[in-house]
């Protein structure tokens, strides 16, 4: 079955960096668009960033543009989220997701598979 397993979350001070990883199995990773979403306590899940199957196209939420970078390694079935200059408001559970189809996917409903999430906590 399809599995997406996130790792790399943790506690970091404001201004610090983290790199999240998401390893996929049970699907044709090189054909999937991958996305990262996050959900802060008491808030709805929100789109963070997405990358197309080849890695040549990406899209970011305005809130993380210039701060986060998404990348992928199709040989390792892995998508990454490099997070720099972290702020308290970046605290959330971060989820990776996989979707199949043309283009980039900005909506959660466009993704067929989800990971369990990894907690990122930024201390102020």
Separation, N- and C-terminal Cα atoms:
40 Å
- What integer value in Å does the Rg equal? 13 Å
Structural class: mainly beta
**Strand residue percentage:** over 45%
What is the average per-residue confidence, as pLDDT, rounded to a whole number?
96
Shape: globular
Q: How would a textbook summarize the main sheet?
A: 7 strands, mixed
- Helical amount among residues, as a percent range? under 10%
Record field, number of beta strands: 11
Give the helix/strand layout:
Layout: E1 3-7, E2 10-13, E3 18-25, E4 33-39, E5 46-51, E6 58-60, E7 68-73, E8 78-83, E9 92-99, E10 113-114, E11 118-123
Parallel strand pairs: 2-11
Antiparallel strand pairs: 1-3, 3-8, 4-5, 4-9, 5-6, 7-8, 9-10, 9-11
Structure characterization notes:
This protein is an all-beta fold and 124 residues long. The chain is built from no helices and 11 strands. It has strands spanning 3-7, 10-13, 18-25, 33-39, 46-51, 58-60, 68-73, 78-83, 92-99, 113-114, 118-123. Strands 2, 4, 5, 6, 9, 10 and 11 form a 7-stranded mixed sheet that branches. A 4-stranded antiparallel sheet has the order 1-3-8-7, with no helix packed on it. The chain starts with a strand and ends with a strand.
């Amino acid at each position: 079955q399809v599995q997406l397993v996130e790792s790399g979350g943790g506690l970091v001070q404001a201004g610090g960096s983290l790199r999240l990883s998401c390893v996929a199995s049970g699907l044709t990773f090189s054909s999937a668009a991958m996305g990262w979403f996050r959900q802060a306590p008491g808030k709805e899940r929100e789109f963070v960033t997405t990358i197309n199957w080849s890695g040549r196209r990406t899209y970011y939420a305005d809130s993380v543009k210039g701060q986060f970078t998404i990348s992928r390694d199709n040989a390792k079935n892995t998508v990454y989220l490099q997070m720099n200059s972290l702020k308290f408001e970046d605290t959330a559970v971060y989820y990776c997701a996989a979707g199949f189809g043309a283009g980039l996917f900005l909506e959660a409903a466009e993704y067929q598979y989800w990971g369990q999430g990894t907690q990122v906590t930024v201390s102020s």
